[in-house]
Amino acid sequence: MSLPRDTTSGLAVGVRVDAGGRMGVGHAVRCLALTQELRGRGLPVTVFGRLDIDWVRAGYEQVDVPVRAAEQMLDAPLSHAVVDGYEIPSSLGQSLRDNGIRVAALIDDDFGAHQVADLYVDQNFGARPHEGGPEGSVALAGPDYALFRDEILAARSNAAAQSSAPVKVLAVFGGTDPFGASEVLVPMLLDTGVPMHLLVLCPDPERAIRLRRLPVASGQEVEVVAALPDLAATAAGCDLAVSAAGSTVWELLTVGTPTAVVCVVDNQEPGYRATTAAGLVVPAGRLPALTSPNADARERAEAVTALHRLLTDADLRRSLREGGRRLFDGRGRERVADALLAD
């Protein structure tokens, strides 16, 4: 198999990651950020896996990164590898290391931490360095190692505080909204009664129809789109955002968009607890509790109250904006690339 290779340094990086369907796009998006950094340094990169979301695949194509089948990775002439996925067996990392390849595993708390690697990276706020890796392995943790794509860094540089009338709100629940969070959180936003222009990212056409049919109060407008070519620039132009508590939150915070978060799945729980406790974001509840047959009406009511405050309190939004931008300096991918390529 012929793969791109840096003939000067002898380096070639392989990235094992997938995107699509129920798995979402978060793993592939943060790997894209690291890939952009590596390509900017002149290193060849190949993705091994499935990228079933068009805009994600296009992001890799824009930096001339080919995509190959996952099973081809062990036969590829690589010097370094990045592995990102909770279901990828630890035997992959072990086999790569046995072949003399330096391996980095991107993890979220215990999720993905089973991987055998030389370098473990947990970019989440409140994360602790991973323990239990092979002897000599290195663990990096926290916002200093958050991985942001080119467009996020550009939006951060150009972002200015927003104050619109009515307020502009972005609702985004991952690239595919696999658990239907939009159909829970959009009605909660509308139930605040606050006039707003609400932009909802919803790739599912049937769900989009239902969202467009929701009743609205005076001054409320709901716009539903299947894709956002530049999510970062859109977020920077909004007064606030409501998001799933995944990696998108770090992007919103670094751009400076005040954000409310909902915990959609269990792997988001550590980040949800840490960011809400620190006052970096506004809590909008946990999706399983909001949607269960025995859902506590008080929890939903408390979340609607919190959303109402975020929509109406400009001082709160200003504080959240400043806090997010202080926490993330946008240089995480440089630090991770340095650690990956370290001798």
Q: What would the CATH topology of the largest domain be?
A: Rossmann fold
Helices, by number, come to: 13
* Structural class by sheet pairing and helices: alpha/beta
Regions with pLDDT < 50 over 5+ consecutive residues?
Answer: none
- Report the strand count: 13
Biggest sheet layout: 7 strands, parallel
**CATH homologous superfamily of the largest domain?**
Glycogen Phosphorylase B
Q: Using the alpha-carbon principal axes, give the shape.
A: elongated
Q: Could you say what the CATH architecture of the largest domain is?
A: 3-Layer(aba) Sandwich
* Fraction of residues in β-strands: 15-25%
CA(first)-CA(last) distance: 27 Å
Query: What sequence of helices (H) and strands (E) makes up the elements?
Result: EHEHEEHEEEHEHEHEHEHEHEHHHH
In spatial order, strands of the major sheet run 3-2-1-4-5-6-7
Q: Tell me the domain tally.
A: 2
Mean pLDDT, nearest integer?
Answer: 92
Percent of residues in helices comes to: 25-40%
Radius of gyration: 20 Å
Q: CATH class of the largest domain, please?
A: Alpha Beta
Index terms:
alpha/beta; Rossmann fold; seven-stranded parallel sheet; six-stranded parallel sheet; 13 strands; transferase activity; Spore coat polysaccharide biosynthesis predicted glycosyltransferase SpsG; transferase
Q: What do you see in this structure?
A:
The protein is of the alpha/beta class and 343 residues long. The chain folds into two domains: 149 residues, Glycogen Phosphorylase B (Rossmann fold); 177 residues, Glycogen Phosphorylase B (Rossmann fold). The chain contains 13 helices and 13 strands. Helix 1 crosses helix 13 and helix 8 packs across helix 12. The longest helix is centred in the C-terminal third of the chain and has 16 residues. The two termini are 27 Å apart.
